[in-house]
Design goal:
Layout: H1 19-30, E1 35-37, E2 44-46, E3 52-55, E4 76-81, E5 94-99, E6 110-112, E7 129-131, E8 146-154, E9 159-168, E10 176-177, E11 189-196, E12 220-223, E13 227-229, E14 235-241, E15 244-250, E16 257-262, E17 268-269, E18 291-296, E19 304-311, E20 314-316, E21 333-340, E22 358-361, H2 371-379, E23 385-387, E24 392-398, E25 403-404, H3 406-411, H4 419-424
Parallel strand pairs: 10-14
Antiparallel strand pairs: 1-13, 2-12, 3-16, 4-5, 5-16, 6-15, 7-22, 8-9, 8-25, 9-11, 12-17, 14-15, 18-19, 19-24, 20-23, 21-22, 21-24
Bound molecules: 2-(3,6-dihydroxyphenyl)acetic acid and fe (ii) ion (FE2).
Amino acid sequence: MAHPADDPPCFPQLPTLLYQVVTFQEQQETMPVTNFRIPERYEYQTGFAANLETEAIKGALPIGQNSPQKCPYGLYAEKISGTAFTAPRWENQQTWAYRIIPSAAHSSFEPAPSGNRLKTKFNQIPNQLRWDPFDINADVDWIEGLHIVAGSGDPALKNGIAYYIYGATKSMNEKTAMYRVNLVNDEPIRGYILELFNGHFQLPELGPIGSNCLANARDFQIPVAAYTHDSKSTWTVVNKFCGQLFTSKQGHTPFDVVAWEGRYYPYKYDLGRFNTIGTISYDHPDPSLNTVLTANSNAHPGTAIADFVIFPPRWLVGEDTFRPPSYHRNCMSEFMGLIEGSYIAKGAGSGGFQAAGASLHNCMSSHGPDVEAFDKASNQELVPVKVGTGSMAFMFESCYMVGVTDWGLKMCQKVQKGYSEESWGGLKDLFTPPELPFRE
Ligand SMILES: O=C(O)Cc1cc(O)ccc1O
Ligand SMILES: [Fe+2]
């Protein structure tokens, strides 16, 4: 867990959303280049959803216009649209990049083998599911170690979500990009990814909480412009497109953006900075109180395509309260993962809920504390307790029914047998009604 002052953030197994920026950093750190302009220390701008501008060379960003007849320093202007041109102003996301060679300069994309591991075919099943920690295979880079576990919908219709896990033991081949992930000191990496087939994450409304708490806008970090200048080597660009990989070649680095301005950019957020709040009186508030980011469905206010929710270290002080999450059936689907440590309310059963594992409680599937957690929480002395020290569990909560890929169900061989029986099969009938008056 990072202390707020720690920099860089300390999660080696970054949960998802933020991986783009990690790759950006690694690229800066390790790529051998002949001519480059990158900061000695990683530098960031901060905020959330702000229109930003940054230039690695003073004067590289045109002033007062996007498309001058000739861009400064012989750069090309390239616009990246993250929303329809005509999306409402508050949600419109686009960026003007000023780069050495436009991204269009590449050979045609050819299919590349990726088997089924990125296919968006989902088996919908009502059972509660839990996975042992996923393997990190030997001798794989980030692209090869990427698998869809679960999800919903169809990327071709831009409607749905996909949940991935990844594990890698080596850096990506030199001069290959999709994103670019290099390992620091050859340490293996693993993590979870949530992909939206449409839309973008926003900070949740705070309502009566007020103008601070949860994830504060100032803690989101956006890289300043940095580039490499290499128009000689051959690069392979990997394109993940509707469930399969394609590759193309180009004679220049894709990491060549010298300046940019706009609202469509990668950012990172250190979960250790989350300002967790909870009850200071009684009862267990809904986990929506722990939402870092939300992607709204727009169909129904407050109903998310995906909420990214975390369970950081926190104090539990509720009086006369069953403190863990209660038994629950949810019309939203809950996919959980554990970055490190342990999670309140789960643990028993073959293997338990372990870091780098996962669980899925699909739409309306019953779940809650296992027998052991129920006994403990029903009988513990209700003094203030700090829970989750050294832990970080998270949940992707979605209004969609979330299915499991063939890989997630069978090929990964991590689904725990007997999860539901072992967790809840032993719950006893504790009902002790008062003696009824005798009736004729
Ligand atoms: O553990 C879970 O299932 C997630 C969860 C957490 C919580 O605090 C309340 C409800 C809930 O579903
Ligand atoms: Fe739940």
